[in-house]
Amino acid sequence: MLLAMPMLTASPEMKQAAMADEPKKETTYYGHTYTTRTYFAYMNCLVQDGILKAAFFLPDHLRLDGNNPVYEVFLDKENRQFLTYDHLEKKWRDAKLDRLEWHGRNYYATCWVSEEDAALVQDYFSGERGGDLGILDFQRNVRDEQLERRHKRITDPWDKDLAQVPKLPKDWKRWADKVAVRENFIFYHYKRGGAKTGYCTFCGKEVPISGHPYHNKEGRCIRCRHPVVFKALGRAGYFQTDKYYAYLVQRCRDGFVVREFRADRTYRKDTLPHSEPYWHEFRRSIYDRTGEIRSYYWGMYCQRETRWISGSPCYYAYYGDQSGRVYGKTLPSLEKKELRQTGLAEWIRSHPITDPEKYLAVWERLPQMEQIWKAGLQRLTKECFHSCDNVRKLVLNPSEPGLIRALGLDASKFRRLRQMDGDTETLAWLQLEKRTGQRITDDMLRWSKKEQISAKDLVFIADRMSLVQIKNYLERQKEYFEYAGAAGGFIDKYGYPFCRGRVMEVVEKDEGQYDTILPVFWATGAALFIRLADYREAGGLDGRFFAHMEEIDLCWRLRSRGRKIVCIPQSTVYHVGGATLKKENPRKTFLNFRNNLVMLYKNLPDEELNKVMRIRACLDYVAAFTFLLKGQLDNARAVMRARKEYRQICPSFSSSRKDNLRKTSLNPIPERIKSSILWQFYVGGCKRFSQLSDLKG
Q1: How many whole angstroms separate alpha carbon 16 and alpha carbon 64?
Q2: DSSP character for 47?
Q3: What span, in angstroms and rounded, lies between the C-alpha atoms of 697 and 691?
Q4: pLDDT beyond 50 at 697
Q5: By the 8 A CB rule, do 200 and 186 touch?
Q6: How does DSSP classify residue 524?
Q7: Dist CA 342 CA 321 (whole Å)
């Protein structure tokens, strides 16, 4: 239908103007060259059946005696529509004029149009501008209307929801000025003998002044007893108070709404002592009876208008401080029904400066918070707001209505918690005490806090060691090297491991003698940092070991493949040695001997394997005989059983041995000494690492 309208062709006036408009080369200050012309396009138009048709011609086409337009724009003012046909691309387009491709268009170029056609466009739209500018104005208005309709589909439900928000109380303005803004002043006229009266901004009256005030001195109003700052009228000038948060809780159709404001006062020199109060509402949260929260904030919507916009509710883990005064006159009626279960009204009365939204967010996440607060646990209450999830993890029985059972305590332990005004750490220790049945003294609690040791750090061992034993062990460990790893591990010719801080059974006191950083053969798994790529390439820890020696086996593989293992003595690790199995446990003896033999088989070079394994067999039998002489029959049997099982499982490790030998690039390993640590310890009398002949620390 649109294309059936009469075809508009170039007029002689257009061609004449195009021929006269010679393109010119312009050079910028920076040397860039561009082409300029007076007109970037030429236009003519007609109106038929209520539709305006505008044809646009390119100057280059006209200069070549072309007659056909490049674009034809169809505009319908009644139906508020427009459409463009692109003759070059042979397709319809809905872009505005300024979004079409115009070669040579620049800031200075205009569109050529006759006076008659310009007037025709202006009359058609009844607008202020004609020609292409009038068309562009119409297109922009249409786009704005379309966007407005699209936005209204989104915003109308918001406005409908917010229509239930009540009006502000009649005394809100005065309350925001007097109560929400917590800065008050006494303005006085300076006198040599000291001012006797001044104007109190809270009282709103002339009040007497005691003493000798001076500018910016803090004090109290004699009449209202409010804290004030004295201001000399001659020196005050222009100033503004801080911005304070203020809250209003009101009943609404669906439940209740929490409204958040910012309020301040401005003082000007010419109006002193009077001020200009100001408040601004920027947030609303509707809490309906189903538990749903719908929040809105005041802001710029889609860069078009300032309005209420749907936003996210207050997050329980939000760490910002938005505490402020809460308007109190609406609370009594809400307390009976809407706020009854939340305890918010009681909280506000005991905490005049608070954030109701944060309180409700924490309460929804942690309903026991109200009980914790009413029980007088101030420190735990504070942690509910700052680390809600940490407290929530300690609510062991959330379905229990009573706080004592919900926390997994009994009456006596809950009484202790209240007496100490305990925090989450104290609560965790008392829960551990109840679970294990071990008494945790106040001294133990104070020590753990001082040492920054939490209950969760010891929960894995608490059922096998008393807390007193753990405390004594850790205190002793401060002075002595830990048995496993002790400042970096080495190994001897026959596979016996030892450390810088421990040779056989002798553990040295840490006096800084091994504080140097140096390469080692192995590091204990309790304090081992390793690159993930190296860990995977080496095959990781061998699960077939189950326990003991598996980290030495891993380190041997890493060293043989050219990786370095370094001890950093500046790091400190507290490790409860023997947590898996006690030292005297025959199972531990069995695993140590069996895994040590497996480790030697997996990693020893071919030229050493047979000789080392023969000598190890002799040494193992000597160890079994020694256990027998000591009356440790179970440990002697464990040694023999270890050798028997080694012979049985040895074939299953043959592929691992081949793989390790194939990837070996470092042989011998410097940190594997060439002598026997047993000989040096028992015969040579070398009880310390620094005394060894092969290595000096």
Answers
A1: 11
A2: E
A3: 9
A4: no
A5: yes
A6: -
A7: 21
The predicted structure's pLDDT at residue 198: 93
Q: Of 317, 407, 424, nearest to 361 (Cα)?
A: 317
Task: Write phi, then psi, for 339 (nearest 5 degrees).
Answer: -100, 10
Yes or no: say if 151 and 304 are a contact pair by the CB < 8 Å rule. Answer: yes
Supply φ then ψ for residue 506, to 5 degrees. Answer: -90, 115
Contact (CB, 8 A) for 207 and 195: no
Close Cβ partners of 252 (under 8 Å, ≥ 6 residues apart): 164, 165, 166, 286
Q: Are strands 185-188 and 110-113 parallel, antiparallel or unpaired?
A: unpaired
User: Which residues lie across from 34 on neighbouring strands?
Assistant: 26
Phi first, then psi: what are they for 658, rounded to 5°? -60, -40
Q: For residues 74 and 62, is the Cβ–Cβ distance under 8 A?
A: no
Q: CA–CA separation, 309 vs 296, rounded Å?
A: 5
Closest listed residue to residue 595, CA positions, set 461, 497, 675: 497
CA 587/CA 581 separation, integer angstroms: 7
Tokens 């609560």 correspond to what residue?
427
Where residue 222 falls (left for φ over 0; alpha for ψ -120 to 50; beta otherwise) is alpha
Angle of helix 424-436 relative to helix 442-450, nearest 10 degrees? 130
DSSP state letters, 137-162: HHHHHHHHHHHHHHHHHHHHHHHHHH
CA triplet 266, 308, 353: central angle to 5 degrees? 50
Measure the CA angle with vertex 98, ends 97 and 103; round to 5°: 100
Closest CA to 604 of 591, 593, 614: 614
Which residue carries 């800084």 as its tokens? Answer: 512
Q: Are strands 227-232 and 185-188 parallel, antiparallel or unpaired?
A: parallel
The alpha carbon of residue 569 and the mean position of all alpha carbons in its chain are separated, in whole angstroms, by 33
Q: Please tell me the distance from the alpha carbon of residue 238 to that of residue 142, in angstroms, as a whole number.
A: 47
pLDDT tens track for 606-662: 888 889 889 888 988 888 888 888 888 888 898 899 899 888 988 888 888 888 888
Contact between 671 and 519 (Cβ < 8 Å): yes
Tokens of residue 15, six digits: 């061609």
SS3 assignment, position 77 = coil
Q: Considering all CA atoms of the chain, what is the largest pairwise distance in Å, rounded to the nearest integer?
A: 126
Give the tens place of pLDDT for each residue, 511-550.
Answer: 778 778 888 888 887 788 888 888 888 888 888 887 788 8
Contacts of 682 (CB under 8 A, 6+ apart): none
Separation between Cα atoms, residue 481 and residue 478, nearest integer Å? 8
Q: Over 387-406, what HEC string results?
A: CHHHHHHCCCCCCCCCHHHH
Summarize the confidence of residues 237-255 as an average pLDDT. 95
Tell me the backbone φ, ψ of residue 637, rounded to 5 degrees: -65, -35
Q: Which residue has the higher pLDDT, 627 or 326?
A: 326
Instruction: Give 577 or 174, the one with higher predicted confidence.
Output: 174
Amino acid at 110: T
Burial classification of residue 664, based on how many CB atoms lie within 10 Å of its CB (0-12 exposed, 13-18 middle, 19 or more buried): middle
**Position of tokens 């042979």?**
90
Are 112 and 102 contacting, i.e. CB atoms less than 8 angstroms apart? no
Calculate helix-pair angle for 633-649, 606-629, nearest 10 degrees: 160
Give the pair of three-digit tokens for residue 314. 């207050």
In 576-605, which positions are buried (b, 16+ CB within 10 angstroms) versus exposed (e)?
Answer: bbbeebeeeebebbbbbbbbbbbbbbbbbe
Q: By the 8 A CB rule, do 16 and 59 touch?
A: no
CA distances (Å), origin 131, targets 7, 145, 520, 607: 19, 22, 86, 99
Short-list 166, 357, 171, CA closest to 279: 171
Write the CB contacts of 376 (distance below 8 Å, at least 6 apart in sequence): 418, 421
